[in-house]
Amino acid sequence: MTSHRSLIHVLALALTLPVTFALAQEGRGRGGRGAATAAAETASPAAAGEKKDAPAKEEKEPVLSVTEHEITLGGKVIKYKATAGYMAMKDAKGEKTKANLFFIAYTKLASADEKIDLAKRPITVSFNGGPGSASIWLHMGALGPKRIAMTEKGESLPPPYKMIDNDLCWLDQTDLVFVDPVSTGFSRAAAGEDPHQFHGFNEDVASVGDFIRLYITRNARWPSPKFLIGESYGTTRASALSDYLQDRYGLYLNGITLVSSIMNFETARFTPGNDLPYTLFLPTYAAGAWYHKKLGAAYAKADLPTVLAAAEKFVQEKYAPALMKGDALSAAEKAALAKEEAALIGLPEAFVLQRNLRIDIFTFTTKLLEAEDRSVGRYDNRLAGIRYAPGTAGRQEFDPSYEAVYGAYVACFNDYVRRELKYESDLPYNALTGDVQPWNYNNVQNQYLNTAEMLHQAMSRNTNLKVWIANGHFDLATPYFATEYTVRQMGLDPAVRGNISLTFYEAGHMMYMVPSELAKLKADSAKFYESTLKSAGVN
């Protein structure tokens, strides 16, 4: 997820939540000592009342909780090992712990009739986005051995929430590692370390990239086919990591999955002078208007593919060229465009004209169902929620598509990690936190971040790298048309252009919340892994 609640809510969190500069109490495997104990043992000699010249005690690695389980996938029983705990990330000298990154790994175990060949067994590292989101969403929604039970529409059942075996888990095709960046999940900066040193684009790529390198090394996975999967800002991270891992460690990936992709931030920033988002969001506005039966008469009986095709054609042939004219657009042209745009996105023609043809995301989410005192979701504009202050267009109090899932995921994960994975921690699990704000984008000061160019460079050097991008038609956080635009603008050589594939789903940002689309996502993932491994000569 990009933030798993409205941007307004995240910014509010950033202003109100306390910043954690030290670990109050680290997690630990049941019966073991955690990183907090190790940190206490390595306090300065002076603080411990020892002689200043006494040798420093060696920092101990955090204790991991390891359990064994099994799951039936496709009629076949798969036994696997689950490992939960911290990996201590050291400084450049390998001496001082800078942060403790929490992770959960699932590794397939050998059976009597099947041995594990690490040269053929893929490993996939997974994370979500935010910035400030833990890996809980992909973990408990799509990839892992357990998932949250959802309605057919993609909403949580009433509490107490239900967790079930995930018969669409990806363990039949790859081992899985879920990592939480610093300040998310249970991950924290080490005692005495400023957490903000990890809160930025470059800083985040380096810390997560270093974790990947260390995990691969400690678990003897250098021979294995290697994959990444990220969601939302996690796609920003994954596309950047493709280049970072090659440059920094010579770690070349086989494949990357981008779920609800955003690589070029110019496509999603409604700022004066940047008309691009108005054009790229419009087809998703049309999808929401279609779902809520707010389209004009010309489209009232059309199906979704027809509406999306009409919206895309309108954008490319009329809307984008008109916005380029700016104030040179005649009154007659503007009036005609407002009429057609209003019919496609379900808003009043006079309102569209008043807004100079430009409808930003929060104006749309609050205006579409204004007559019913409802707003529609940013992550999934099929879902609607009650307005605190009806009639205030452009001010969304909360994201109903986030609230529809947040409580269930947090409750079930907190139970699962302790009861089944036997991992204990008194820390709150930060599914989404504002503690990472302000996020440091100094690497692109006065620019828009665009990691598509980093992926372009990685693919040009590693011509075997395959990329699969999955987007939902009802997603306003990372609209599908913006993803298509970004890919078309990458400037890839024809020799590698076919290495990118895109699939689309009749759902929102987390398309896997909808059971039918989760099944489609799993089927598409199987095709991606099979084709990628086949091209690499792995049978």
| Name of the level-1 CATH class of the largest domain | Alpha Beta
Q: Specify the helix fraction band.
A: 25-40%
Domains (count):
2
How large is the count of helical segments? 16
Q: What is the CATH homologous superfamily assignment of the largest domain?
A: Alpha/Beta hydrolase fold, catalytic domain
> How many strand elements?
16
Q: Taking Cα atoms only, what radius of gyration do you get, to the nearest Å?
A: 24 Å
The share of residues in extended strands comes to 15-25%
- Low-pLDDT parts are 1-56
Describe the protein's architecture and organization.
The protein has 2 domains: 7-266 and 407-535, Rossmann fold (3-Layer(aba) Sandwich), CATH 3.40.50.1820; 270-403, no CATH class. α5 (233-249) runs parallel beside α13 and α6 packs antiparallel against α14 (480-488). The protein is globular and about 70 Å long. The strands form 4 sheets. Strands 2, 3, 4, 5, 8, 9, 10, 11, 15 and 16 form a 10-stranded mixed sheet that branches. Strands 1-14 form a two-stranded antiparallel ribbon. Helices cover 35% and strands 17% of the residues. With 539 residues, it is of the alpha/beta class. It has 16 helices and 16 strands. 48% of the residues are buried. The protein has helices at residues 7-16, 35-41, 136-143, 201-218, 233-249, 276-291, 304-325, 331-345, 349-354, 361-367, 400-403, 406-419, 452-461, 480-488, 494-497, 515-535; strands at 28-29, 65-73, 76-90, 97-108, 123-127, 146-148, 163-165, 175-179, 188-189, 226-232, 255-261, 374-376, 384-386, 423-424, 466-472, 500-505. β3 and β4 (97-108) form a beta hairpin. The two termini are 33 Å apart.
